[in-house]
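We emphasize that the prediction below concerns an isolated chain of 716 residues; any contacts that depend on oligomerization or on bound cofactors are therefore not represented. The input was used exactly as deposited, without trimming of termini.
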Amino acid sequence: MAAGAVYRATLAHEMQALGYHIQVTHADGRFEVAGMTKAQLDQFSQRSHRIREAMEAYGLSGAKDAERATLLTRGPKKETDLEQLRDEWKARAIDHRLDIKGMVQQAQERAALGADRPATSLHAKDPVAWAIDHTTERQTLVSAMDLQRYATERVVGKASFSHVQQALARAERDGTLIRVGDHYTTIEALRVEHQSVEKMKEGRNSVSPLTHRRDADNMLSGHGLTAGQERAARHILTSSDRFIGVEGWAGTGKTTMLQRVQEVAGTSRVEWLGLAVSASAARTIETEAGIPSETVAQFLNRAPSSAPEGVQRAYVIDEASLLGARTAYALMQRVEQEHARAIFLGDRNQLAAIEAGKPFAVLVNHGMQTERMDEIVRQRDPALKSLVEQAAQGRTVETVGQLQASGRLIAISDRTERLNRVAHEYLRQTLSEQAHTLVLSGSRADRSTLNELIRAGLQQQGALSGPEKHADVLVQRDLTKARMREAASLILGDVVRFGKDYRGLGIMKGEYGVVEATNPDHGTVSLRMEANGRAVEWQPDRSVVVEVFQKEQRGLQDGDLIRWTKSDYSQHRRNGDVGRVSIDSASGSLFVRDRNGKETIFNPEGERHWEYGYASTVHASQGRTEDRTIYHADSQQLATNKEGWYVAVSRARDDLRVVTDDVAALKEAVGESRTQASALEAVARHRSQHSHAVHPEVQEGVSDRTGPSRQLEIER
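Result of the prediction step, given as a token string:
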């Protein structure tokens, strides 16, 4: 938290001035006093131990949840007898042979010589730039407190909090940061959104319709389409805009609509290509709509191409609400470059991108021609269909009461008991019913626990059989690109996968290295390459095309359900797809069978990107459909919100069961929106509430640095 960062930076600054030598040990600025052993330090770090225990007890994970655990474990303030506390510390120091007098004497000698004083002449420009990169990778609008916190964490032992404040003020003056109330956005975020909107407008009336309006009307009527499906199909077929949208509620039959569009337009004169953020969503477009598809990342990484002579190219972008602003603009540039067209399929009320921005919403709000589909066809149960319609309309709080009244909502305060109940709901079904049931939770920690509980239950039922084989899996660490550039962000045992060749180090794309040591002061990481055992000294700030994983062990038995966590197209594995494991009792060979019944050899030693597939996070479930859903909705988790609730309750065709901790708290949680922000909309809203078009400090700073042209760019 920001206060903690300021405290650590100030404490380090003053300790160095007194002559103590400090060593920063964590990326968040935590430090240790040099000269103390780990055992001695642990005796004076009992608060951290309590926080870790609380995170395990509440099923919390990640930096944000760590802050929640800090608050949960904070007891009421009470008066402390300082003399008694000092005596306790002295006794603890003596017990662990800590020479306090010697440390003080050495510090005084260093202070007298002027040694180990913080380099206050170094300003905080680089830490502030890092904090901007880190926070704006996933958010367009960031709080001033978050920027201060992350920048201050990086100046510990180097500068003071006042230097951070000065650097932030400079960033405002030069226009890099734009203040919006108690938040900031950036000129880069504004530019990307503005250019996306302009490109959409430039694309109006720039392509030929796929068919004439009269032909479309004749060929669409009488084919069993809903009114929304027919409107959307007509829109796609007759529009002359390069970029158009179709906004459909969850379960309104976009696949059926796309199939009819292809039948009407034909495939001989239109080249249909599908794009999606996730590999599993791309697979769905391909298998259900019959459109050859790939991920957006694959599309942007390959060279541009042109459609055959006399053929129009149309890109269908599914789950467009999951696109980030930078990615969406790059995609639009490529579509224009290929003289193609793009149809964005999305829903502004569902989950937003992990990357910063909400481009689908911004384009729709700024005039992209968009048709709506709001007749739900997924739900076969009338009561469930009514509930999903309410959620789609934003009436999420009402749906909680509706579920409670129907007996589909269970409240259990104890987390362990609650998760066991979720597992029980799954295990009491037949094997065929389990195969068509989604088990959802908001956090990765709860997903992991549910996987283990369900798997243990299946073992007891005899659904998993034979000897258990043990294998290592690679679990991705949740690091921003800014954190990946820091040696301090990596820990011993981490596994680094290189996404491109680094010939200077002799590393080829796809190779893995294990972290053996880190040197944050020099920005280096010692790796042991898995392929040949070679030692490599690696500088993360020069190699950002990497992925970082932690190694964990899993057991496998005949009948286990697994989910691929990284695509491997050479093995026909797609991220998010599930498969059923079988083990040959005679040879011990492992096989995995996909949902289409295709069985392939499975080598756990070489294929480490998988996880148990019994439970999923809500975010990973967007775009999926099953007969039944069992949803663990913990009201205390950030993922339990308006958008997440809508996605979770709309996955099932026939039945939905929700297990929560507290009904009243759940209503409050699902009434709160946690969607992404738009820089354009935030600045416009701020401008409407104030007399100045742009924050006066920004105007002054822009004029100081580059004059009217820079100021005009921000105002645009």
